[in-house]
Specification:
- The structure is a single chain.
- This protein is of the alpha/beta class and 392 residues long.
- The chain folds into two domains: 2-168, VC0802-like, CATH 3.30.2130; 180-389, Rossmann fold (3-Layer(aba) Sandwich).
- The protein is 38% helix and 21% strand.
- It has 13 helices and 15 strands.
- It has helices at 18-33, 58-65, 90-100, 123-138, 190-200, 219-235, 246-255, 261-279, 299-306, 322-332, 335-338, 360-367, 372-382, and strands at 2-7, 41-44, 47-52, 73-81, 107-114, 141-142, 149-155, 159-163, 166-168, 180-184, 204-211, 237-244, 284-286, 313-314, 384-389.
- Strands 1, 2, 3, 4, 5, 6, 7, 8 and 9 form a nine-stranded mixed sheet that branches.
- α9 links the parallel β13 (284-286) and β14.
- α5 runs parallel beside α6.
- It starts with a strand and ends with a strand.
- The mean pLDDT is 93.
Length: 392
């Protein structure tokens, strides 16, 4: 029988709340694998066992588990029955030999974990016996530090699981354990990464995109829809609000000094996103700001933009540089889409010399001459909602 044995890290530290987090992770695994008709997903002794039917490709399971937040790592295993009181390792040794067949390596080690301490054989006993057997049949050397290959054995109450491959998951917390947040997503490199990092902390992301329509085409909207569909693979269901923002920008250009336009755009975006977030029962807003990266992300401008918010504004990328953000975008698969050219609303009417040290008093004085509440109502009323699911 083939299985995936899923391990988690942070969940094990949750004390009396641990069951809640484990069950949420089991639920998310069911959602991630639902179209593969995998029925047996069980929480056992500090790990989760996913039983893989014969008709399901293990690589399909690998692809899904790699994107399940809360999964620290997992093993693709073959299981053998185990007698709790009189364990016979003969079959286990044979399966271990089969696991190594066809693999190229010069040195190996065996690492065993005993989940049930009632087993008379300790982890070290199993490592010695199986390691000695493999040494005899393969002729390969045993190397306890930095071997070419590690064979993993998980000893449960009535079965043992053997695997020659450990695969890393994203780690973090299961999506849905930290409430909902509204993520402002532009279509660039940064904001999808910011949303992903909040998902890893257990948040369900609701997306808000500001389009330059009707002054530009729908190119940025189509790009963002593609990014949201990609991110939905990490949280299984997503909602995207697209706000036509071009007319509001045109009004700001006509009635505000050029250096302050970008900060004014962002303050109104924050207000509109906040209203949509409240409707979605989100507890915070999330942006892809990275300190000092562009003119709108100086300390002074960030402070002035945040003053427009009543909900907390979270900035998971604030201390990351562009290289780090780009590497994570490549890791999650959003980079290729993010660098495609589009007509982003943030590039409309950008002044040659934007203010980098904006004073709140100056912005409040300018806003008194603008119909801020009307802009917010217009943005919320014209927002268009799309929904996404994974698997599709």
């Amino acid at each position: 029988m083939h299985c995936a044995i899923v391990h988690y890290h942070e969940l094990a530290l949750k004390g009396r709340n641990r069951d809640f987090f484990e069950q949420r992770l089991v639920r998310n695994l069911r959602l991630a694998l639902r179209d593969l008709k995998i029925r047996r997903i069980e929480s056992l002794q500090g790990r989760i066992r996913v039983t893989i039917p014969d008709q399901v490709s293990p690589e399909q399971v690998v692809e899904r588990l790699r994107r399940t937040c809360g999964v620290s790592n997992f093993l693709l295993t073959e299981s053998v029955p185990l007698d709790l009181h009189a364990p016979d390792l003969t079959r286990l040794k044979q399966v271990a030999e089969q696991q190594l067949a066809g693999l190229t390596f010069h040195s190996f080690r065996v690492t065993a974990k005993r989940a049930d301490k009632r087993l008379p054989l300790t982890s070290m006993d199993v490592e010695r016996e199986v390691g000695g057997y493999l040494f005899d049949v393969t002729g390969k050397s045993v190397k306890l530090k930095q071997p070419d290959l590690t064979l993993y054995i998980e000893l449960l109450t009535h079965e043992a699981h053997i695997a020659a491959r450990k695969i890393q998951g994203p780690g973090g917390m299961p999506v849905g354990t930290s409430g909902k947040v509204a993520c402002l997503i532009s279509g660039g490199i940064d904001s999808p990464v910011a949303a992903y990092r909040m998902m890893k902390r257990g948040c369900k992301a609701v997306f808000v995109h500001f389009s330059g329509r009707p002054l530009v085409s729908r190119a940025s909207e189509e790009k963002v829809q593609e990014l949201v569909q990609l991110l939905t693979a990490y949280q299984y269901e997503s909602r995207l609000h697209i706000v036509p923002f071009g007319e509001i920008q045109r009004e700001i250009v006509a009635n505000a000094p050029a250096p302050f336009r970008v900060v004014l755009y962002r303050r109104i975006m924050i207000r509109i996103a906040q209203e949509l977030a409240r409707r979605e029962r989100c507890w915070a807003l999330v942006t892809g700001d990275s300190l000092g990266q562009v003119a709108s992300q100086t300390p002074e401008n960030l402070s002035v933009v945040e003053e427009a918010a009543e909900l907390p504004v979270l900035r998971p990328l604030i201390g990351m540089d562009k290289i780090e953000i780009t590497e994570q975008a490549q890791q999650i698969g959003s980079f290729t889409t993010s660098i495609e050219p589009d007509q982003d609303c943030c590039k409309l009417f950008v002044p040659l010399h934007p203010s980098t040290r904006t004073r709140l008093d100056d912005i409040l004085r300018i806003e008194r001459n603008l119909e801020i509440s009307a802009f917010v109502k217009q943005g919320v009323d014209k927002a268009e909602l799309s929904t996404f699911t994974f698997p599709s």
